[in-house]
DNA sequence: ATGAAAGCGCTAACAG
DNA sequence: CTGTTAGCGCTTTCAT
């Protein structure tokens, strides 16, 4: 179909220079006179030449690819992260090699092997990094996850404690003093960090912190609805709740609306019905579920991806730069923010 | 750190054979005695050899990579699609090169160029395929999008008309006869196909189809709430609504609950208040927003990804297989399904 | 059934 | 500043 084999050789002769010059122009390395650069680029576009990165990689140059490992792209946080990362890397002429290590990270080794075999210039690792330390010696490793990180490698992650603080302060600002925490799994590091922020904020404000107001529950509206109803019965003076995720927040929201219903219908004086306030956590920035009654603290996943891209490029250009750990602030979307 | 340069040469001598044999074993091509295969594989694992795909690609073999182009990974449908695709391809030893063409497909050409430069064995294209026809001659192209496809290339996509039919039939089965359609943009092909299924179903059941019950609106709970309230006022005998997306469904759900409130409080006879039924569309299978009052018709995005992977592998092994177009059924998640 | 040898397209020494 | 040249690790005829 198209002209098959346009190599730097053709480009070189077309531009009346040597292959070295062309190669230098391509990688922007040597000091080539701008006139020559011009001529070469012209030849390149004229011939429709596309550089063969395999050959470049083979010879020792960089492959122009960055490996990414995430557990599963259907997890919002990692999808957003990967989107930001790929966007930023592609803008710099890099290409992303995507691998999924599986829901439990079971394919981590396979991921590293594929990436190494493909000659990636660096690896960005999402998710748990604990046993990834020595899997890819010789290739820069950048960690970008929801909570964990590696001592010796560059890392980016959300400021979960700040998220917990933001949620709590948002509710305090509205006058609430009895705030419950609903949802999430006790083993979650992200959750633990967020709850840390929640507790710290309460204490800073001289409010008592009651561990019985911290409830684990499945990430489903049903489970959340059941849990919050029980919570309200047991602790009637609770006036606000922090939900660990959008489905939990939704479950709370619906349960609360229905409860208001029921109470009003029971002919209780309307004034006696105190509507409960609600804040939820989310992994997507737009969190387009927001509504007057739904406010979210959103992870800056996409921004983390972009930052990881920047860090990766820096690490490639400056291998000796000191290791850096960055934590990025969440964003409040809904009632007051955005 | 680790042993640096283990090439097929080391493997060959370690196994006491020639590089040819090793290469043949690696690609499973030539007829090598199983004894030799055994010996070679042993040497490979012993030395921790990993094949250099760049070299293989350069010499003419396959690179073992499949290129993927999506508009933006933060769109659920494409995140799920990519997850399924990558999962299935990695299980077969392939690696995915991910590129994003941008919200408006503005980087499509750049995507193709990068992928070609990297020597991909095939390209899976998500999103609009119209002007992608001739961008990558010589490389198999597989289309996997929400609606559009290319005549000459293999394609996979959701059965949107069936989705519309499923939503409508679900409501009809519950006895509803006055069903509105809320949300989406008039220019959307996906929406048009779904609405086609909706209309067809109504007609098949001998029900009138009223174009004024099809409302465009922003994909936000607020917009949906406003729209459905207006709709109810204008057409009081509507008893059900189909929502184009989760945020629209949520907005409807909340608005409906509040309206029931209001009516009940206004001391209207409770029996006069007919609760409205609701079905929504979603791009994620778990659609974990489901709740007794929230049912979803979910796109089989992940399954489409897996099917696209299978089709890609088939196309690589059998280049002459006839072009195939596959449409995949959505899934009802919630009240009755699942 | 296996081995020897010729490059694939590119980059990085070295020279000029 | 630019040209010559030697491979990178692998696949693939062509012999054996």
| Principal-axes shape call of chain A | elongated
Provide the CATH top-level class of the domain at 160-298 in chain A: Alpha Beta
Mean of residue pLDDT values of chain A = 88
Helix segment count of chain A?
A: 11
Q: Please give the CATH architecture of the domain at 160-298 in chain A.
A: 3-Layer(aba) Sandwich
Tell me about this structure:
The structure is a homodimer of 338-residue chains. With 338 residues, chain A is an alpha/beta fold. Among the domains of chain A are: 1-61, lambda repressor-like DNA-binding domains (434 Repressor (Amino-terminal Domain), Orthogonal Bundle); 160-298, Rossmann fold. Chain A contains eleven helices and twelve strands. The first copy, chain A, has helices spanning 8-15, 19-27, 34-47, 53-59, 76-91, 108-117, 160-173, 189-204, 221-234, 246-265, 301-317, and strands at residues 65-70, 95-100, 122-125, 141-144, 154-158, 179-182, 214-215, 240-243, 277-282, 295-298, 325-328, 331-333. A six-stranded parallel β-sheet of chain A has the order 2-1-3-4-5-11, sandwiched between helices. In chain A, strands 7-6-8-9-10-12 form a six-stranded mixed β-sheet, with helices on both faces. In chain A, helix 1 crosses helix 3 (34-47), helix 5 (76-91) packs across helix 11 (301-317) and helix 9 crosses helix 10 (246-265). The first copy, chain A, is elongated and about 90 Å long. Strand 2 (95-100) of chain A pairs antiparallel with strand 2 of chain B. The structure holds a DNA duplex (16 and 16 nucleotides).
